[in-house]
Amino acid sequence: MTTEEILYAVSDGIATITLNRPDKLNAWTAVMEREVRAAIESAEADDVVRVIVLTGAGRGFCAGADMSLLSAVVAGGVDDRVREQALRAGGARDGVRADFQKKYSYFPAVNKPVIAAINGPVVGLGLVIALYCDIRFATDTARFGTAFSRRGLIGEYGLAWLLPRIVGLPNALDLLFSARMVDAAEAQRMGLANAVFPADALQGKVREYARDLAANVSPRSMRVMKRQVYDGMFQTLAESFELAEREMLDSLQCEDFKEGVAHFLAKRPAAFTGK
Q: Is this prediction's pTM over 0.85?
């Protein structure tokens, strides 16, 4: 894969996508947007890949939209090019609800776990990207902020829907209104981060977690459960329950279920195929 602003590598069943503008704290650009999307699509299509990790090069995860882009809008106004870039859809996918086909909201429709390894500041659009990942692990030096209200902007790209579901309504309003920076400890208490690790241990801990998923967990189970959870955000309990009943019967007939029982009884490592 030829890239300009990201790095892409696969090992141990893990695809690692690294935002690679360290001198700019990995500030987000249109090129980075296209390359991240292409890398995720490549990882999703690769049967070798079972987990996707998104991280940043250098001392930051993502400082938000590149300020040169915002300065250009201030100078030139909102023309057709700006409208197209801001409103570009995520791309149509069969069998995926429209909610998960927007510009960045496609992450929940990716059929493999996406883990954000937050290695430093994550701000504005960078925070939006991190929150669309399924799980967030952070370094203890990371700092989190929405930034939008301090730029005269609003909760972009579905953030006003997503953030309250992660941290609760009062915390979401606080973070959106004040745009204050939150340290890693407070981020973990709020639920912005699943876990926090020392800076020199973050990548190792993330890979340890991802390797466990890749080696010991059914890819099919993860794929179905991810869809259950995200679709469940739009369902009643009865609808979720009925879907679970159908999925349970299907799982009882799949290869991964047979392997799950067989490897447990034989006390040997799992050999799941995802089927």
A: yes
184-215: pLDDT as tens digits: 999 999 999 999 999 999 999 999 999 999 99
Please give the CATH superfamily to which domain 6-214 belongs: 2-enoyl-CoA Hydratase; Chain A, domain 1 (3.90.226.10)
Q: Among 65, 161, 44, 163, which Cα is nearest to 107's?
A: 44
Q: Where are the alpha helices (DSSP H) in the chain?
A: 30-45, 67-76, 80-87, 125-132, 159-167, 169-178, 184-190, 202-216, 219-232, 237-251, 255-266
Cα-to-chain-centroid distance, residue 175: 19
Residues 75-116: pLDDT tens digits? 555 555 545 555 556 567 778 899 999 889 999 999 999 999
Closest-CA residue to 192 (of 125, 103, 132): 132
Six-digit token string for 262? 């067989």
